[in-house]
UniProtKB/TrEMBL annotation:
<comment type="function">
    <text>Catalyzes the conversion of epoxyqueuosine (oQ) to queuosine (Q), which is a hypermodified base found in the wobble positions of tRNA(Asp), tRNA(Asn), tRNA(His) and tRNA(Tyr).</text>
</comment>
<feature type="active site" description="Proton donor">
    <location>
        <position position="134"/>
    </location>
</feature>
<feature type="binding site">
    <location>
        <position position="158"/>
    </location>
    <ligand>
        <name>cob(II)alamin</name>
    </ligand>
</feature>
<feature type="binding site">
    <location>
        <position position="194"/>
    </location>
    <ligand>
        <name>[4Fe-4S] cluster 1</name>
    </ligand>
</feature>
<keyword id="KW-0846">Cobalamin</keyword>
<keyword id="KW-0671">Queuosine biosynthesis</keyword>
<feature type="binding site">
    <location>
        <position position="223"/>
    </location>
    <ligand>
        <name>tRNA</name>
    </ligand>
</feature>
<feature type="binding site">
    <location>
        <position position="188"/>
    </location>
    <ligand>
        <name>[4Fe-4S] cluster 1</name>
    </ligand>
</feature>
<keyword id="KW-0560">Oxidoreductase</keyword>
<dbReference type="InterPro" id="IPR017896">
    <property type="entry name" value="4Fe4S_Fe-S-bd"/>
</dbReference>
<protein>
    <recommendedName>
        <fullName>Epoxyqueuosine reductase</fullName>
        <ecNumber>1.17.99.6</ecNumber>
    </recommendedName>
</protein>
<feature type="binding site">
    <location>
        <position position="62"/>
    </location>
    <ligand>
        <name>cob(II)alamin</name>
    </ligand>
</feature>
<feature type="binding site">
    <location>
        <position position="214"/>
    </location>
    <ligand>
        <name>[4Fe-4S] cluster 2</name>
    </ligand>
</feature>
<feature type="domain" description="4Fe-4S ferredoxin-type">
    <location>
        <begin position="176"/>
        <end position="208"/>
    </location>
</feature>
<feature type="binding site">
    <location>
        <position position="244"/>
    </location>
    <ligand>
        <name>[4Fe-4S] cluster 2</name>
    </ligand>
</feature>
<feature type="binding site">
    <location>
        <begin position="241"/>
        <end position="242"/>
    </location>
    <ligand>
        <name>cob(II)alamin</name>
    </ligand>
</feature>
<feature type="binding site">
    <location>
        <position position="248"/>
    </location>
    <ligand>
        <name>[4Fe-4S] cluster 1</name>
    </ligand>
</feature>
């Protein structure tokens, strides 16, 4: 494809991203992530995935986008802000991660991605590919870093100089050749705020998270009883955890989102007693469209009981 056409198509793709409310759009060539392969293998070997057995599946697909989308030429990575308009973390009350304040991001962003893809086809022509939002074996942070949207921080999350880390990542893997963006340098420096603040010691070394000790894992992914060693270390988190993000200096640049679907859906006024006495009917009504549904009622009750015991 002529260089000027590739350049023009790249501009079109980035313009569509901006129109749909994505904060940043970065592009990488669809190729095997050679540098990530040994890191991922080592992480799995250490057992840091805990009971998340699905992370051991499709190893090749996680690292090679052409195995997910045959003929793929480009990986388009996108950033969508979810930093809340107001925080709802009260002293001595239960807390849920900010990403779960409103409606389930999978559905909100998936609709935008479908629009994105169909708009590309309208403006550029026949393009084949797939869209992803935390829903398939796509190594999201690696692709976002490779395309210059930020760098992977010591807490293993993608950090962006303009907006910190309170955002969702999404991708289009397409067979359209586009201009690739280069990676960004690491700006964590000597800071160890995230490691120092983690109450369960889930960041044993910089850039490595022991998923099996992470409060997000314990409250969402772990289906069995939470190990007793974490008693009195939950700091009132009952769905996810934001500690390593809240203490990150780069998140002083976070700005409120413009997505009404991410506003709280009725739980934000709960007292501690109301959390503890929540019925299944209330859970179903308040969290009907929420990511919190993932724990199911029994899972959330388990978390509340575990975090609430002294």
């Amino acid at each position: 494809m002529p260089t000027h056409t590739v350049s023009k198509n790249t501009q079109i793709v980035k313009a569509i991203a901006s129109e749909l409310g994505f904060s940043f759009c970065g592009i990488a060539k669809a190729e095997f992530l050679a540098e990530e392969a040994p890191r991922l293998e080592e992480w799995l070997t250490r057992g840091y995935q805990g009971k998340m057995g699905y992370l051991e599946n499709h190893f090749d697909m996680r690292l090679d986008p052409t195995k997910l989308v045959p003929g793929a030429r480009s990986v388009v990575s996108l950033v969508y802000n979810y930093y809340p308009k107001a925080k709802h973390e009260k002293e001595n009350n239960f807390k849920i991660a900010k990403y779960a304040y409103g409606q389930d991001y999978h559905f909100v962003i998936k609709e935008k991605l479908k629009t994105f893809f169909s708009t590309i086809q309208k403006r550029i022509g026949e393009v084949e590919g797939r869209v992803f939002v935390d829903s398939a074996p796509v190594h999201e942070r690696a692709w976002a870093a490779k395309s210059g949207l930020g760098w992977v921080g010591k807490n293993s999350l993608l950090l962006n100089k303009q907006m910190g880390s309170f955002f969702f990542l999404a991708e289009l893997i397409i067979d359209l050749e586009l201009e690739a963006d280069g990676p960004m340098k690491d700006y964590c420096g000597t800071c160890t705020a995230c490691q120092d603040a983690c109450p369960t010691n889930a960041i044993p070394e910089p850039y490595v998270v022991d998923g099996s000790r992470c409060i997000s894992y314990l409250t969402i992914e772990l289906k069995e009883s939470i190990p007793a060693e974490f008693k009195e270390k939950m700091e009132n988190w009952v769905f996810g955890c934001d500690i390593c993000q809240d203490v990150c200096p780069w998140n002083r640049f976070s700005k409120p989102n413009h997505e009404d679907a991410f506003d709280p859906q009725g739980w934000e006024s709960f007292t501690r007693g109301e959390w503890e006495e929540m019925t299944e009917e209330t859970f179903g009504r308040v969290f009907r469209k929420s990511a919190v549904k993932r724990t199911k009622f029994a899972g959330l009750k388990r978390n509340i009981q575990f975090a609430g015991k002294k």
